[in-house]
Amino acid sequence: MKALVLGATGAVGKDLVNQLLVDDHFDRIELFVRRPVSVGSAKAAVHVVDFDQPGEWHGLLTGDVLFSCLGTTIKAAGSQAGQWKVDYTYQYEAAKAAREQGVPTCVLVSSIGASPKSGIFYTRMKGELEEAVKALGFPGCFILQPPSLIRKGSDRFGEKAGVAILKALNAIGLMRAWKPMPTEEVAAAMIRLAESGRMGTETIVSQAILQA
């Protein structure tokens, strides 16, 4: 199988690439990134692209499955508009190009609580992206809505504090659906879904990801 990966430098993306490299079901992995990265494997290729110019990389998105886990924060992007461009526009344009090129399967990482009707910018953005990707008509479309993520080596104080609070609440039986999940578990579920051969559109929420 040939995998296309969007978001390979993020927390989930790094784990995804590492797992794909040792998975015998995949003999080719192509990464689409904004900055050069070193992979160190003969079965991986890195495409450094300008995501603002989709016409330049549209034709490269050919394969068996698109794994899309690109994302940023408002702090890093500088504004809601900047975050929308990365989280929504870039991912949608890649998914659209992949579908037009005949890619049959898309596995998209979204967020728990995602809904186009949400009053919160982030979850509304994720919900609108989900609906747009579903409408592209992938024979197999899998959307993962993970809870808070446990990222190896994270230096985000707010993120670490939030994970600690959720773990404490989980310990007394509260907010179990929001139990923090290691990024490597999300990556493993993405691969299982791609290899499953299942068709149709599925949204897998929170802890159900572990059994996907």
Overview of this structure, please?
With 212 residues, the protein is α/β, with parallel strands linked by helices. It has a single domain (2-147, 182-211), classed as Rossmann fold (3-Layer(aba) Sandwich). Helix content is 37%, strand content 19%. The chain has 6 helices and 9 strands. The protein has helices spanning 11-21, 74-77, 80-100, 121-134, 157-171, 183-195, and strands at 2-6, 28-33, 44-48, 65-68, 105-109, 140-145, 149-150, 181-182, 200-205. The strands form 2 sheets. It has a 7-stranded parallel sheet with strand order 3-2-1-4-5-6-9, with helices on both faces. Strands 7-8 form a two-stranded parallel sheet. Strand 5 (105-109), helix 4 and strand 6 (140-145) form a beta-alpha-beta unit. Helix 1 packs across helix 6 (183-195) and helix 3 (80-100) runs parallel beside helix 4 (121-134). The chain is globular. 34% of the residues are buried. Mean pLDDT is 89; it is low at 154-163 and 165-169.
Briefly, what is this?
With 212 residues, the protein is an alpha/beta fold. It contains 6 helices and 9 strands, in the order βαβββααβαββαβαβ.
Question: Could you outline the blueprint of secondary structure elements for this entry?
Answer:
Layout: E1 2-6, H1 11-21, E2 28-33, E3 44-48, E4 65-68, H2 74-77, H3 80-100, E5 105-109, H4 121-134, E6 140-145, E7 149-150, H5 157-171, E8 181-182, H6 183-195, E9 200-205
Parallel strand pairs: 1-2, 1-4, 2-3, 4-5, 5-6, 6-9, 7-8
